[in-house]
Design goal:
alpha/beta, eight-stranded parallel β-sheet, five-stranded antiparallel β-sheet, 23 helices, 27% helix, 17% strand
Length: 699
């Protein structure tokens, strides 16, 4: 059955009960699919007034399903149902190499003040959600399709706990049940005729119909401190007395530098630290082991309550104990403890590397410390097999029930390699084309990630690409070609500052967003909101200034809020909201026409300039009788004339046979007089941050 059709019919049925919706608005960007046959009132401020019930049924029926009557099971993973569409020569998830990914957090990406009350409400005056849902996210897909996006990468969508939540809504990374979806993503437009599971199935179906693949984020290293697993498996967690929670923090190790890796070479100092010893002695046996009879009473009360009680509240009340929060695996990392999540107990014994030191301290109960947090370096010898089976079942659950196509494993580099292998193998037994993304930021570990079975790494583009005046932009774009693994060409993520708030502002954001399409051995990545010059970060986790959270004007309704934790809607009414989408649409079409050439790194020719320190970068992608030059002026404040060296190109492309044609300029600054001089180079004018695409054809 088509879950899209089910959702459409449910919305149409609900409209009969809600006929009087007069002032419901959506941003005009959401109408990129050009929904017709429905009344729309275009407002000059970037809003469109629609009847939401009629609009979304028309969006589904006319734009997404349309005339597509192919007998394809869109609920299967994309390449299982459409194997002929798999790119030639790219197996086992390597199709990602040709892709363009868009990162979305459903709750925020599809948020909007629909009734224009000035507040983002859980339920507005029409009893409709203003935070994002799977149904409302369907409106984003036509725009993504036009921009050239073919991978929707989703931040966590599983049920998360509000216990010790961060911000107004809590973090989606505080997952409390891997096998249930977040009910907050259910849309009231379908009433009780669809479940949140139906609506996610409809979303995946829509993506597949539009030739987009779906990748999700999974978090097998951590779980909410209020996890649903506690009730049946208290031994899978780490416990302290409730009275010790107030001053619980990662212990400091004197004599060691900040944020060192948890390697055994540092353990003599770690386990000699008085703070560490004091920290270790806070841990207790799990409550079931301490008092099995009382645990039975707690379990009975929780199950009979049918959602009335939070499991951790009952433990704290009846045992005066609590789950120990997680913290960074880096020694002396200044980050505080993560109050909403904890680590899983992956091994039933202490880490082998730590046992000699623990024996000197005395008896220690299962604990959280840097060694345990980095079990890839410090495994135990007794696997928690039942937990491992549970963790390896997460992706197959989403594959078989929803048809997802890939996953990023959060902090996978900190997990035992044996567990990672199990996760990868179990998913690929279902879908050999399943794509795995390693959360590996260090490009030095690219080869290791590939050897583990990943298809790509995230890399450190969000650190280097914004830093054009430090030479880091060029080090990234020219270095990517030589890595053993492809990586994301990513200027910002949900954890970093926004490009538009960096030095260079909107010019930098536009430049990076466009040029990322043409960096060899990389996958362009757009963070939700980046396309409308969003300035406020979603989180302040990486590379952020202390004031980053306050990037908006003080009178902005979202001033000081973070989309990862608070009610937040991106500024879809930005005056230049169509600029990046329009540029990406044009540039992506050109990229697509050269994608087969770009995939073969032997066709890639790095371009030089008049001097190594020139603020410019570029590549030539050379086919038999044509070549594409992608060149950027990395000076985001000044006009420049750049001398582009073409002497390393095959000789025919700098001869009298070569015809140069300007295909694209990100600043509407068309190239003129593109003539190669006797030294096999040419000089072109550039606006600040301008990207030019030039085609050379042979007569």
């Amino acid at each position: 059955m088509s879950y899209l059709s089910k959702v459409s019919k449910a919305i149409a049925e609900q409209e009969k009960k809600h006929k009087h919706v007069f002032n419901y608005t959506i941003p005009d960007l959401w109408d990129a699919g050009e929904v017709n046959n429905v009344e729309k009132i275009v407002v000059s401020d970037g809003n469109i007034i629609v009847n939401p019930y009629r609009y979304f049924t028309a969006l589904i029926d006319e734009v997404i399903i349309g005339k597509n009557k192919k007998k394809v099971d869109y609920h299967q993973p994309y390449f299982l149902s459409q194997p002929k569409k798999r790119p030639k020569g790219l197996k086992n998830g390597d199709w990602i190499r040709q892709s363009f990914a868009y990162s979305t957090m459903i709750r925020s990406s599809a948020s909007y003040d629909h009734d224009r009350s000035g507040r983002l409400e859980e339920m507005n005056l029409y009893d409709l959600k203003e935070t994002g849902t799977f149904v409302k996210s369907l409106a984003l897909l036509p725009l993504l399709k036009k921009m050239g996006v073919d991978v929707v990468y989703m931040l966590p969508i599983s049920k998360y706990s509000l216990k010790d939540k961060k911000g107004e809504l809590g973090s989606p990374y505080g997952v409390s049940n891997f096998f249930k979806l977040d009910e907050g993503l259910k849309d009231p437009m379908t009433g009780d005729l669809c479940t949140v599971e139906d609506e996610f199935k409809a979303f995946v179906e829509a993506c597949h119909r539009m030739d987009m693949k779906v990748i999700i984020d999974i978090i097998p290293r951590t779980n909410s401190v209020n996890s649903d697993l506690i009730i049946d498996h208290p031994d899978w967690f780490y416990w302290i007395d409730l009275k010790d929670l107030a001053d619980y923090k990662p212990p400091h190790v004197p004599g060691l530098k900040s944020t060192l890796p948890a390697k055994k070479q540092y353990f003599p100092e770690v386990f000699a630290s008085e703070e560490v010893i004091e920290h270790l002695k806070k841990f207790r046996k799990n409550p079931n082991e301490i008092n099995p009879d009382l645990w039975k009473k707690l379990t009975k009360k929780w199950k009979s309550g049918k959602g009335k009680y939070e499991v951790l509240d009952l433990v704290q009340e009846m045992f005066q104990m609590t789950i120990a929060p997680a913290f960074s695996d880096g020694i002396n990392d200044p980050q505080p403890a993560w109050s909403d999540v904890t680590f899983f107990r992956l091994f039933m014994d202490h880490p082998e590397n730590s046992k000699p030191y623990l024996e000197k301290i005395g008896h220690i109960e299962p604990y959280i410390l840097f060694d345990v947090a980095k079990s890839s370096y410090n495994p135990g010898s007794i696997r928690n097999d039942e937990l491992w089976e549970t963790l390896t079942d997460i992706i197959p659950f989403f594959q078989t029930n929803f048809g997802i196509d890939g996953a990023r494993i959060d902090m996978g580099h900190a997990l035992p390699e044996e567990l990672i292998t199990m996760i990868l193998n179990k998913a690929r037994a279902i879908d050999p084309n399943f794509c795995f993304i390693a959360e590996e930021l260090d490009v030095e570990n690219a080869k290791v990630s590939m050897e583990k079975g990943y298809n790509m790494i995230i890399g450190d583009g969000f650190i280097r690409l914004p830093r054009v005046y430090e030479g880091l932009f060029n080090s990234f774009v020219y270095g990517a070609k030589n890595l053993e693994s492809p990586l994301f060409a990513v200027g910002e993520t949900h954890d970093t500052p926004r490009l538009a708030s960096r030095n260079g502002g909107e010019v930098l954001s536009r430049m990076v967003s466009v040029f990322n399409l043409f960096i060899p051995n990389s996958i362009p990545f757009l963070n939700s909101g980046q396309e409308v010059y969003e300035r406020q970060p979603m989180n302040t986790g990486l590379d952020c200034k202390p004031t980053e959270q306050y990037s908006l004007d003080e009178d902005d309704p979202y001033y000081g809020k973070l989309a990862l934790f608070d009610r937040y809607a991106f500024h879809y009414n930005h005056k230049q909201r169509w600029q990046i989408p329009t540029l990406l649409q044009k540039a992506s079409e050109i990229r697509h026409s050269y994608i087969d050439v770009m995939m073969n790194l032997e066709n890639v020719y790095p371009l030089g300039f008049s001097a190594p320190w020139d603020m410019a970068a570029g590549f030539a992608y050379v086919d038999k009788k044509r070549a594409l030059l992608a060149v950027v002026n990395t000076d985001v404040f000044n006009d420049k004339e750049h001398y582009i060296r073409l002497d390393n190109l095959p000789e025919a492309f700098t001869s009298d046979q070569a015809v140069f044609t300007s295909l694209f300029s990100s600043e509407n600054n068309e190239s003129i007089d593109m003539l190669v001089n006797e030294y096999k180079g040419m000089t072109l004018p550039f606006k600040p941050g301008e990207v030019k695409l030039i085609e050379i054809t042979l007569k």
